[in-house]
From TrEMBL:
One of its GO terms (molecular function) is rRNA (cytosine-2'-O-)-methyltransferase activity. It catalyses: cytidine(1402) in 16S rRNA + S-adenosyl-L-methionine = 2'-O-methylcytidine(1402) in 16S rRNA + S-adenosyl-L-homocysteine + H(+). This is Ribosomal RNA small subunit methyltransferase I. It comes from the Bacteria. Residues 249-291 form the RsmI HTH domain. SUPFAM superfamilies: Tetrapyrrole methylase. Keywords: Cytoplasm, Methyltransferase, rRNA processing, S-adenosyl-L-methionine, Transferase. It comes from Paragemmobacter straminiformis.
Amino acid sequence: MTQHGPGGGSYTIGGKPLAAGLYLVATPIGAARDITLRALDILATADVLAAEDTRTLRHLMEIHGIGLGDRPLVPCHDHNEAAASPRLLRAIEEGKSVAYASEAGTPMVSDPGFPLARAAIAAGLPVIAAPGPSAALCALTVSGLPSDRFLFAGFAPAAAGARRTFLEGLKSMQATVIFYESPKRINQMLEELSQNWGAMRQAALCRELTKRFEEVTRGTLGELVEAYAGRDVKGEIVLLVDRAAERVADTADWEAALEAALERMTVKDAAAMVAEAYDLPRREVYQVALKRGK
């Protein structure tokens, strides 16, 4: 089957008709050709379309030659998701396929879709992911920072007190921390992180990923503060910060903790607790505990 789009292009639909369910469709964060073939299949065949921004989805479909036809296109964003969700769930219950797309990137990754997906799951309805572009993963890929363990932190709170508490809770994280940040606040964010997390901590600032003016700046937090000082920054920004340096346990501290633990616990339990608390080899702590537990 071939569907003709309003722009004169066409898209050949592959596979079978979609089964009833909620399809969470990832859309490009910049380059329109980054969309997956499966996402195009879903957008071309779903009975009902829903989008964070209906104009953006219409434009994306036009680029790829997918016509909307007489299918409903339902706005579903932060301000109306609670009201839009029941309509979309009813459609699934009636045996229809519903495709939901964020404005850019993956639904629910700092984008709407969570209440809708949660309600569908609670109702026992199928929820299917059509994975694809994500600014967080794209930035992690090009950052040069460790990717074996990472934490997506999203946007920091705007209020000063909540922001300090938020950042303090992530300061010692043993993982690469990924933030989204607005151009208006990026200089403030860099300065706060440099002062509180340490100017020598490695970081990467990714701006306008996959777009014409894509830019990736790597260095220490202190270097990034200098690089962006006074700049009129524009575009979508992902900021990544390297994991905290591993804390080296002070021998006197953990041995004192072990002594206290041995007064109320068995040798085995005391050693296990202290080893975990101070990130030490359990065998080493156990050998010390054996000598002191006699």
